[in-house]
Amino acid sequence: MRVLIYHNDAEQWRNILLERLPDAEIQVAAGSGNPQVDYLVAWKPPASVFDEQTALKGIVNLGAGVDALLQNPSLPRGIPIVKLRDAGMGELIGDYARYGVLHFQRDFDRYRRQQANSEWREVAVVDKPDWPVGVLGLGAIGTRVAQMLAADGYPIHGWSRSPKQLEGITCHHGDHGLDTLLRQVKTLITLLPDTPATRHIIDRGNLAKLPAGASLINPGRGTLIDEPALLDALGEAESEGRLRGALLDAFPSEPLAADSPLWRHPRILITPHMAGPTPIGAAADQVADALDAMSKGKAVETVDPDAGY
Ligand code: GLV
């Protein structure tokens, strides 16, 4: 099997995949003049990579989100696409979500503001059972995050487009389910894929449904959030808006522009898309398994390009 890798750390990926697939011919993509291969293993490849390859039998996306790949103007149609499923990212994003939930539930945001004024004042704790958390998106990662927070003792509401049943999670679905979830959660965590159906799902109308003083954590995709609506909901530094604060890891355009008002907003915490770095060992196992299965004509779980995930 002939494989081409397109990634910032392509050499590292080549070595780790060769350990698992010693008989494969694995090449690192150069700017142009790449040989024809059977499979492309890539993260955000440019259109030119697809323009050159005329005989691809499968694509492995080196990430959980396939939005960038599906938006590639030269992506060939009808070829199976496999993506990473959790691969250890769920636990990392679960820890990120835990940090964010604790930040608001244990009032670290308030203590930061108090410290700026040398103010020594203890705030009464709202206990975990009284702090419902909503997780939008119950794919592999959203499910893991929901389960980790449920194990910590928070009542967890999960939402997906189609009905799901998960032990220990109150599952909602569809438009009505989203409404029900939004009206009762103190922290909302967005882990939906970026698709035409999810773009700006957190808009003015949906932000207004959250209880006053709710908080938002977005380790998913920046396009899920209508940014002007978020800024309006947060209000100013001193007068708390409807929304108490936001922890944001993903933005519609990355890196976040230096002049973005989000950087300087006192109620926003920003991290540089670090919530779920791909653990290379677990990911390489999935990639090697997918390549092996596809090359042997065995069934693999593929992406549905129409659904966008
Ligand atoms: C990262 O954002 C990914 O989709 O894996």
Automatic annotation (TrEMBL):
SUPFAM superfamilies: NAD(P)-binding Rossmann-fold domains. Pfam families: 2-Hacid_dh_C. GO terms for molecular function: NAD binding; oxidoreductase activity. Residues 101-275 form the D-isomer specific 2-hydroxyacid dehydrogenase NAD-binding domain. Keywords: NAD, Oxidoreductase, Pyruvate. InterPro entries: D-isomer_DH_NAD-bd, NAD(P)-bd_dom_sf. This is Glyoxylate/hydroxypyruvate reductase A. It comes from Salinicola corii.
